[in-house]
Amino acid sequence: MNTKxxxxxxxxxxxxxxxxxxxxxxxxxxxxPLLLLASPGSGKTTxxxxxxxxxxxxxxxxxxxxxxxxxxxAAANDMKDRFRKFFPYLQPVDFSTIHSLAFELxxxxxxxxxxxxxxxxxxxxxxxxxxTILRNLYKSTSGVNITEDQLEELMTYISxxxxxxxxxxxxxxxxxxVPGAExxxxxxxxxxxxxxxxxxxxxxxxxTKANEILQKDADLRRMYQERYDYVLTDESQDTSMVQHVIVxxxxxxxxxxxxxxxxxxxxxxxxxxxxxxxxxFKKVYPDAKILYMEQNYRxxxxxxxxxxxxxxxxxxxxxxNMFTENPAAGPIRFVRLPDxxxxxxxxxxxxxxxxxxxxxxxLYRNNTSSIALINEFDRAGIPFYMKDAxxxxxxxxxxxxxxxxxxxxxxxxxxxxxxxxxxxLNGYITKQQLEAVKRIRNNKSVFDxxxxxxxxxxxxKKQILEVKETLRQMNGxxxxxxxxxxxxxxxxxxxxxxxxxxxxxxxxxxIGILNTxxxxxxxxxxxxxxxxxxxxxxxxxxxxxxxxxxxAVTLSTFHNSKGLEFENVYMIDLVEGIIPGSDxxxxxxxxxxxxxxxxxxxxxxxxxxxxxxxxxxxxxQMMDSRFVSAIKKIVSGRxxxxxxxxxxRKVKMVGLGKDTAEIPYNPNxxxxxxxxxxxxxxxHRVFGHGEILSVDGDTLEIRFEKRVVKLSAVTCLKxxxxxxxxxx
Length: 728
Ligand code: ATP
Ligand code: MG
Known about the structure:
The protein is of the alpha/beta class and 728 residues long. 45% of the residues lie in helices and 15% in strands. Strands 13-14-12-15-16-11-20-19 form an eight-stranded mixed sheet, with helices on both faces. Strands 3-2-6-7-1-8 form a six-stranded parallel sheet. It has a five-stranded antiparallel sheet with strand order 24-23-22-21-25. Strand 21 and strand 22 form a beta hairpin. The chain binds adenosine-5'-triphosphate (ATP) and magnesium ion. Adenosine-5'-triphosphate is lined by residues 17-20, 23, 38, 40-46, 262, 265, 297-298, 563, 565. Residues 44-45, 234, 563 line the site of magnesium ion (MG).
């Protein structure tokens, strides 16, 4: 008998982690192919990490012989962190993306054949950047500039084709809204080969090339096959076809492959992810062992039950029954705000009250949601972390337009500033008209020069004089008022509408940018402050990337929250048109992906999950996401059949204006504003016992055990947050 203590007993003592039977089986099954299909929070990533340690400690495998492939660089870092936390004494293995492996292979190959190549994505030189090349090709085929949205769409189209390995004769059958996409792709491929002195490769090409190299170069293939004895892939539901076949080739000889996946969390099919591959796993690896895990260790009873019911609305899936032995932790909360414009403030207010920001995340579908949030969080002094901070907002042409128009209120002598916005103001000054005055240096208003020297249409004169006068009046105006004048009286919003008609821009999106600018401008007194504030926020956003692991709230898209977990999760913007998106309503498969995305987001929460929607946005009536309605229905249906009989009631609060929230009914809550008097002892749902220090209009100042907090009296009444202590 081996006197050495069993690995698992040791781990139990060292880490207090007790693996369940399936997890144990997955860790022990080191030789040969293994597919671990499991629900969110069931310990897939944990199992992968334990398995790596098991290989090293028990099987004596050198860490350098193990390769753990992750979906993204961020996921690789997360896994590395988790590994270090568990096994600080072990040398970490190679956690990286398949792209980095492909890059090594491609580099080795081109060195060998002595052929230079250049990457055109990531940190690539703008001159040779994929985006620049595509922009140029689009312009030369269609005569007009491609919009940012169309460029994104075009890149998705290309990625999809490359990742799915669609042969060129079928490119035309891949759906896209970009006109002439197929032709542009043909030209793009040709340009990369012959357009410059060297071969150009984008990230997808690295995969395609790596696969080709493994196919045709026997030496390199052998070298890479011999490099690793064990390969593991996490989040494999989002692995694409070309990635799967690279992995196949890599493990061909030993077949020591552990694939971990959850088909219900597949959220990248639009980019060519191939979760159906997992269904055929046995065809590719006939000896594969397949294991299933359904117990969730992450989330509360309430969250697991609701999520499990919710995902069943999808038809194209392996049926599973996720369950948990975790205790209940309070119901899922639903908050419906009267208007979108309160959302960021609402979150800043609520999250600002939390003791600990680290375990809190705000999740949204679209990156654009983040700007309003960072504005409010920055104002409220709440630190936040964003892994995918997107600075594009600040350089967006709508933002630049507004800044340029503001500049014109300081001086209208600069034709170069007017040149940036001339066609987007009342009067619609044309390029030719502007050309006529551009070089005049007489230190006069460019508008006067236009009237004097440019060939204007009769109706333009009056409008241009009006623009000039409006800009003059705007001098010194607070920025919020200035933006309103720009949108209205100066005709900017009308101009945007025309641009949308002409170029197919999304109007909602552009108007959304203007509204966000108004939110940022709110409370600022000068346009200089406004410009400085934008600069500041841009900087804050850059810094937000560095706050990982700090005491900061995580702001993330649903997509990028994959694999992560937090005590408290706020899912926001839960309205029809955003999730599901408008184009998803028509298409069953897209709709199912939207359901999965919602499911991924909600299963990030350990204890507290809040779903936020609103009734109005930009003056339009909004409908709650059908997914929110579905969860509400699941939750209320379950209440009726609760075995214990201790049914939590949910009531709609009435009598205080609009119903904005549904929260657990508290029969003891203070219901009348007259009960808020100085010196009154109260108990708060979150903060515990306290005493009212002051009452000033709607503001209650209360000293709780840990700190003094200001609360809105109306909110406390509406949400039943405070109880009278004397009465208890
Ligand atoms: P996702 O699908 O979201 O990526 P996952 O399946 O990878 O989730 P993990 O992140 O590995 O799940 O684990 C979720 C949580 O459950 C973690 O906090 C982990 O520590 C805990 N956990 C996993 N297995 C066990 C176990 N056997 N006992 C107790 N806790 C566990
Ligand atoms: Mg995981």
